[in-house]
Write a structure and sequence with these properties.
The structure is a homodimer. Chain A is of the alpha/beta class. Chain A contains 16 helices and 8 strands. In chain A, helix 4 runs parallel beside helix 5 and helix 15 packs antiparallel against helix 16. The longest helix of chain A has 23 residues. Chain A is globular and about 60 Å long. Chains A and B meet through strand 7, strand 8, helix 9, helix 10 and helix 11 of A and strand 7, strand 8, helix 9, helix 10 and helix 11 of B.
Chain lengths: ~350, ~350
Amino acid sequence: MRIRAAVLGAGSWGTTVAHLLAQNTPTVLWARDPILAASIAADGVNARYLPDHPLHPALEVTADIGEAVGGADVVIMGVPSHGFRGTVEQLAGSIRAWVPVISLAKGLEAGTDLRMTQVVHDVLPGHPYGVLTGPNLAHEILDGHAAATVLAMSDTTIAERLAELFTTDRFRVYTNHDVVGCEIAGALKNVIAIAAGMADGLGAGDNTRAAIVTRGLAELTRLGVALGGEPLTFAGLAGLGDLVVTSFSPQSRNRRVGEQLGRGRSIADIVADTPMVAEGIRTAPVVVDLGRRHGVEMPIAEQVGAVIAGEVAAADAYRRLLERPSRPEMHGLHGLRGE
Amino acid sequence: MRIRAAVLGAGSWGTTVAHLLAQNTPTVLWARDPILAASIAADGVNARYLPDHPLHPALEVTADIGEAVGGADVVIMGVPSHGFRGTVEQLAGSIRAWVPVISLAKGLEAGTDLRMTQVVHDVLPGHPYGVLTGPNLAHEILDGHAAATVLAMSDTTIAERLAELFTTDRFRVYTNHDVVGCEIAGALKNVIAIAAGMADGLGAGDNTRAAIVTRGLAELTRLGVALGGEPLTFAGLAGLGDLVVTSFSPQSRNRRVGEQLGRGRSIADIVADTPMVAEGIRTAPVVVDLGRRHGVEMPIAEQVGAVIAGEVAAADAYRRLLERPSRPEMHGLHGLRGE
């Protein structure tokens, strides 16, 4: 069975995934901007987002979404959360029956708090859906460094078949049936990464960052489980793995935003300077809202949200976290253990 | 109730913990070497292990273990695993009834595979015991950076009272009843940190390190649970937190050993150059042995053990890990969920 792939969105990660797929199967990359599409097709390089990285020669590029989707046996959504629903609506007229839709986005829909696969289900009921997520910096993968990721789908047979399509000798794809947990983890970790970056900007050390990552993981696990995810997922590649890379890598956009906040810059200033989207800025208020609605204590996300909203300075937010009373480490988590 | 503390061992961490305690209660630090004891007493600085860090003026220092222990209401063991039993035997004649013994060591006893609190129980049955463990780099704590840690004891009342003694405005102490899990996590994480360092030495990127830490945590959780720890402990400060700091900090001895191995140096060469102990070198064969005896798959620890034993080059070990077949992410972990 030959599975032709269409990747929608020619940002850095969409382009990278298309490049990986092209090694295993006929793949077309859709760029919304015809100029970018023409330039990638002509040069074999995405000069806007991934200069200096030659793409697989078999990769096709188009600016015609109907053409990309109409011939595809799997559609991969490489667009950020704020453009996600619009793109799914745009492809609805061209996608064939039974074709699975895989999300690469790490965010929740503003206004509805929906996960991206819920948006897929909303617009395209009946299509199998899933999410590919993990500690995956695009540049490193294109440079040939080893990486691992998770493909989460409720249907194990489809997941295993699709996992083969993404796998190369340097890119390991694990399967997981917990779509909700993997997707929530991918969205929530950006907020904790902003907190880790804030600590850096304030001159904190490795101990502090490790404590923020650990307590942050506990916090996002509590919320993720309240939203229907499984506890173990958050300790896996989609949770811990992605949190670690997003919190520590100099290449991480969310960490960099936090670092600037820690140095006292306002979010408006930072956003004006940043060409690419840091999803955590949009996710923070959504996460705080979800925590309140589900009665889950989220001290780190609350402080990140307050700093982004300009209500509190980063140094004060950090002090508030330290002033909380000590308590048993697993407070609020032990009840999660038995599923 | 005034609780006088004795810290045994004037290495960098023992000295740091004594300095923290001295802020809250009368504390004496025991140095085995009379010259070091006299120098710390005279200068208020541990010039051998922590130069440039002035210690709390109220901290007392002695080279007489009987004097240190005889007046103590809690004894803190700041000696590494290979000298641990000898020191406990040495203090057995001086310790008073009911006095708790807290271990700071992160290793298992060679030959017996015992945890350090098991050694305490062996030599001093009837004394309450516990372990203080977490992402705690001594230099950063002395520099006043924020950090968090875990005090694990089976008796919650004693744990809460002692936690107050260690707590300062920059050092948060959480309590945990899972002594086994906290202690095993502290010992096992050093082996995974060596693997993360090996990846660095081989020029791998942030994705790879994140994957090693995540899969490494899954591996040490499997073994830790087989040995009687609770799964959640491994996702906490004693597990994940300490693993993150040991795997990523430039100051981590175990990470540095791994980095040198990754660059192709032999363990004999590396050890000859290193003044301080990297516990992971000793722990690796013990962990591999425990994994085999308990039927737990430990692919990362196995490869670290093989590199340390000189049986395989780091680059080949790394390749072997990548060549393992892909599989469901939570393979072997789902059974752990319901305690």
